[in-house]
Amino acid sequence: MSTETAPDTQATNRLGEIEMLSPRRSGGPTPQAFRGVPIEVVVAVGRARPMIADLARLRRDSVLSLDTALTDPVDLYVGDRLIARGELQEMEDGSGRLGVRLTEIADLEDAV
Question: Where are the alpha helices (DSSP H) in 37-99?
């Protein structure tokens, strides 16, 4: 005799799990429910607009000229939404990594 659960009981259990995980009927999950979720922030340093022929000639150690100076502010994006601006700086931990010191921050209250 098998100790497995009958197929329709398994389906009922899964349905119960789905109901438990469904958003609240009173407007969905609260913003606090997402605060622990990691999100990718893209730092846009500058743009380049080379001709396709120039792009095809790029090799290792080639330098692609950007439209910005080293001291120009950088933009921080989540998806296509601009969330902040800042200045590049070397991290003080001696790792040689870059960080961004924020100088402007968008109002994100409506986005969360």
Answer: 52-56
